[in-house]
């Protein structure tokens, strides 16, 4: 978990300081565009692409777009999915059945397919991509929250509070929600890791930003055309960035799960 947090903090620091770290503008042609992309060198550590853009600058500045989409979608998914799961699991009845059917229907679709469908309808933009990812991950927050609430509301102290006439809002916010939050944090870490990969898929198809805006998935989409000609650096460095950031969130999610399981034992 500590290693995962270190990776996430590193990328957040890169995103914040990106304008000072990137030696070139991602829109400036700094390489030789007459023939082929330039391989990594002291001047261009990640090489340049076929248009002459510095890949190091594009990977650094692309961190901002990726983190913005992933964090926005995860936070929105949490804000919507957790309250719905809390209310659905606590009250049950027709409301629970309707919400469960809706969420199960969304959950049945492969995440990347559903995200591509929504983003295609909304059009390419950071906000639209975040909304598409949010729809994908709301069911995960809902299902995990609902399951924990159903388990918790049968505890003796919750039953006693209801018998004594405690307000439902007070029971949910002060007695049930704190017990649900550890599960929510685990889901947040794992969902964010998956969201990074899904965002890369969306940007690969040009559904997040349009070229020449710097984005890891978009750079891989353009770089893969040059891969067979030997320009391996165009896909390697954006791919490593996606891999390590997703790994960081996954490690945090798994670390939290292990810690909470250890406490339960």
Summed up, what is this model?
With 265 residues, the protein is an all-alpha fold.
Key terms:
mainly alpha, 75% helix, elongated
Q: How far do the termini sit from each other?
A: 19 Å
What share of the residues does DSSP label as strand, in percent?
under 5%
Biggest beta-sheet profile: none
Shape: elongated
Query: What oligomerization state is this entry in?
Result: single chain
Fraction of residues in H or I helices: over 70%
pLDDT averaged residue by residue:
89
In the predicted model, the low-confidence regions spanning at least 5 consecutive residues are none
Radius of gyration: 22 Å
Structural class: mainly alpha
The total beta strand count reads 0
Describe this structure in words.
This protein has 265 residues and is mostly helical. 75% of the residues lie in helices and 0% in strands. It has ten helices and no strands. It has helices at 2-16, 18-21, 55-91, 93-108, 111-122, 126-152, 156-163, 168-204, 216-227, 233-264. Helix 1 (2-16) packs across helix 10 (233-264), helix 3 (55-91) packs antiparallel against helix 4 (93-108) and helix 9 crosses helix 10. The radius of gyration is 22 Å and the shape is elongated.
């Amino acid at each position: 978990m500590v290693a995962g947090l270190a990776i996430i903090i590193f990328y957040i620091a890169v995103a914040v300081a990106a304008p000072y770290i990137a030696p070139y503008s991602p829109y400036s042609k700094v390489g030789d565009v007459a023939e082929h992309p330039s391989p990594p060198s002291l001047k261009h550590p990640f090489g340049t692409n076929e248009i002459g853009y510095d890949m190091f600058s594009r990977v650094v500045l692309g961190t901002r777009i990726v983190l913005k989409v992933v964090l926005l979608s995860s936070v929105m998914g949490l804000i919507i999915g957790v309250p719905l799961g809390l209310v659905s699991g606590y009250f049950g009845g027709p409301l629970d059945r309707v919400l469960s059917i809706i969420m199960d229907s969304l959950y049945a679709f492969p995440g990347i397919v559903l995200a591509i469908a929504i983003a295609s309808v909304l059009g390419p933009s950071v906000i639209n991509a975040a909304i598409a990812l949010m729809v994908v991950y709301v069911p995960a927050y809902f299902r995990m929250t609902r399951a924990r609430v159903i388990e918790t509301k049968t505890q003796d102290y919750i039953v006693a509070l209801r018998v004594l006439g405690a307000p439902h809002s007070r029971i949910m916010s002060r007695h049930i929600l704190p017990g649900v939050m550890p599960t929510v944090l685990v889901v947040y870490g794992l969902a964010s890791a998956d969201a990074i990969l899904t965002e890369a898929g969306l940007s690969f198809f040009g559904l997040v930003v349009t070229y020449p805006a710097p984005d890891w998935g978009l750079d891989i989409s353009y770089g893969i055309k040059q891969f067979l000609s030997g320009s391996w650096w165009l896909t390697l460095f954006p791919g490593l960035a996606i891999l390590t950031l997703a790994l960081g969130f996954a490690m945090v999610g798994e670390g939290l799960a292990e810690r909470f399981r250890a406490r339960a034992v």
